[in-house]
């Protein structure tokens, strides 16, 4: 019985990890696009990017998830629970990651960008080969922090019908009447996952530090 | 690496577009379910013995009923599990075809939704801690803290009943009835107001912890399943309703009631005038 409960928690943890990783990855791609829009210096690109960030940073994730789940069908996009969960988490983390990256992009030495232009790199090459790698290196700790935040926020996606670690723990606690060991185990599983993310982040920081700016 | 992320984004985009188009394929809800071979049913899994998770397994009377319905209709049943206060908004948004729940058949709900014939009695009573001598009849809850489920008719009835007492009860709303039972066990509230079949089941499951206080304080009421009121869902609602009546006549419903409640209920074929 105890073994079965633990296996069920681990299975639910797998969906927590899957949803979070996919969302962090999609969110990262969107964040890079948002940064590009911001750095373009053209209001037609940067204004929508700013609105995006202020909306997804200013509305609680729980409300965003419920909106995506129940509002989109009104305009003909009836997305399944898993898509609603991933879209909600991705858009939210994209806004935060873009803000983190903004600091990094601002700290890229001007001289480097000028040098890149002088060597004949196109603006696009300058962005992807010079600015992004440097900004990433500078903001890596903040990005790892954000990944951990999203992993923990993924406990909210049960409101759109996804059974993840927290929901599974609640279901098991109410059917077995053993809330203390079950919530303790769920907490421990979260702690282990977050520690692994932190370790990977530290490893990546050390690797990148070897190739200094 | 980056390629894989784009692939994932492309797949989700394709999913978005796919579901948007498939919604207009057949002519009405029942025809679409038959064509797809899947009926989506929304529910809350914290409503034992109708719908709950037993050591990871989704089980209860709802699961048995819709399994039989799926067999009769020749489709698979796909469950969508949400918190109860999210179930009706999601039904209206078209996230699933029907709601299991079940929900008490009330005037307010009939105005907005279609409800099937009753599957069980829903009259509300009090669950107390075993051996609590301060509560021996329903009116003893006056002035005390009593819990019930958020967005439930049981909670509305508790408040209505509370207004008739000399001192009002402190009515507390819980996300699910399971949370209310947990607080009753922890002593944060002295009673939980819920329908008789539910609290009788909980009292039986946790003998020595909880007791049902009789008689019930609520007006006589019944549980039904819920569908949408629009023309698109009309044939589906009629079908589910005919299944309830069919299973009532051939004894399958009585067998399920016996299995989950340890007793059977004498329910009418239709509730035209709910008591509240």
Automatic annotation (TrEMBL), chain A:
Keyword Chloroplast recorded: no
GO molecular function: L-cystine transmembrane transporter activity
UniProt domain ABC transmembrane type-1: residue ranges: 13-201
Keywords: Amino-acid transport, Cell membrane, Membrane, Transmembrane, Transmembrane helix, Transport
Protein location: Cell inner membrane; Cell membrane
Highest rank taxon of the organism: Bacteria
UniProt signal peptide: none
PROSITE patterns the record matches: ABC_TM1 (PS50928)
Topological category with respect to the lipid bilayer: Multi-pass membrane protein
Pfam families for the chain: BPD_transp_1
Residue intervals passing through the bilayer: 12-39, 134-157, 177-200
One GO CC term on file: ATP-binding cassette (ABC) transporter complex
Family: Belongs to the binding-protein-dependent transport system permease family. HisMQ subfamily.
NCBIfam families for this protein: HEQRo_perm_3TM
Protein name: Amino acid ABC transporter permease
UniProt organism field: Rhizobium deserti
Lineage of the species this protein comes from: Bacteria, Pseudomonadati, Pseudomonadota, Alphaproteobacteria, Hyphomicrobiales
From TrEMBL, chain B:
Database matches in Pfam families: SBP_bac_3
GO annotations of cellular component type: periplasmic space
Stretch forming the signal peptide: 1-25
InterPro entries cross-referenced by the UniProt entry: Solute-binding_3/MltF_N (IPR001638)
Domain Solute-binding protein family 3/N-terminal: 38-264
Predominant location category: periplasm
Location within or outside the cell: Periplasm
Record keyword Signal present: yes
Keywords: Signal
Classification via PANTHER family: ARGININE-BINDING EXTRACELLULAR PROTEIN ARTP, MEMBRANE-BOUND LYTIC MUREIN TRANSGLYCOSYLASE F
Name the record gives this protein: Transporter substrate-binding domain-containing protein
